[in-house]
Design goal:
The protein is an alpha/beta fold. The protein folds into two domains: 221 residues, Vaccinia Virus protein VP39 (Rossmann fold); 119 residues, 3-Layer(aba) Sandwich (Rossmann fold), CATH 3.40.50. It is 32% helix and 23% strand. Helix 12 links the parallel strand 15 and strand 16. Helix 5 runs parallel beside helix 6. The longest helix is centred in the last third of the chain and has 23 residues. It binds zinc ion (ZN). Zinc ion binds next to loops.
Length: 410
Amino acid sequence: MNEILCRACGEGTLKRFLELGGMPPVNAFLDESEIQKEKKYPLNLAYCPKCLLVQIEEIVPPEELFSNYLHLSSASVSNINHLKDVADTLNKRFDITSDTSILEIGSNDATLLGFLKQHTDNLLGVDPAKNLAQLSREKGIETLTDFFNTRTAEEIVKTQGLFDIIVALNVIPHTPDVVDLLRGVKKTLSPDGTLVMEGAYALETVLQGEFDTIYHEHVYSFSLHSLISTFDRAGLKIVDVEKIPTQGGSLRIFAKRKEDAGEHSKEMISILDEEKEKGLNNRAIYDQVENKVKNFKTQLKQIIENEKRSYGKLIALGSPARGIVITNYCKIGKDDIDYMIDDTPLKQGKYSPGMHVPIKSWNALDRNEKRTFLLLSWNYKDHLIKKLKENVESARVIIPFPKLEVQEIG
Ligand SMILES: [Zn+2]
């Protein structure tokens, strides 16, 4: 047996609890000519018995996953609203003035920094995707095209000094060498500065059987317990935490340099207690995941067969990473889905990773034809169902999570 050590604490030997099979990089949408060359990688999920961090076993090199990234922050209205909310939260909590310096790791197309620009010009984005940095610069946001780590942190400190606020939304789950990233944060944070980060909460996602947050880009699923020791190794201390609804359940974490941190907040202590009560440190909670996931697949396939008999092939709503995981694991392909509708212009005209379903815009829909839709972007349900109602007279919609069901629209 191959033993794999925990990537975060370096002490525990990983225990596998879920096998999702071969999975392509879920953000690599393909031109027709690229379909033949597509690579798949095994996707297995494990947890560390020492620090309890949930993580995938095999890593695909980040350079292969992120250098031409098609997920745009500004592509969905719901995501823009979320980032607007983050900007408001930061402004309220930290009283941002023109003196406040803010660094965003994984700044994407600088949607969030764009909102913060009304308060301060001391902004820096860091993102490895070359196609995105250009979009950020067009918004007047200075951007470093690179991965954030201890090396780039040193460069940044030399040229720009320390930062009061460092934001990393959904970045740490994507970063194999998380301790190095956090050490970089420690170097870059001013003595009174705060790191604000968000990521999917294992207890409300994968441990409930919502396996669609698991993909190669997404190395970790958090719990609060699992992050404390990882942050400690980097010289950081978590001081506060909030539960937020994004991605089917996420944590927003506030951390400071260990020596300047102070005590844990009440909210943090109550979430730690709740994690213990729910059995996060008990093997049983991990062992029940695979059964939940297998049952989901059987039921979804059954529903799709029934719908196809009445309304023909389905149309998917959205082609997000999570939807690519669902379609690949459940083997839902061109025989089941006509096409996927996605607002991201960069995806339109391409084919979905793994199952090679064409991606189209809303214009492809026939207003009067009743069809069944598979809501792959189920975390943006309200927004997409509203948009669907504007585009068709009536429809049936399969909602995969949090509870698998079919809804009649119109
Ligand atoms: Zn560990």
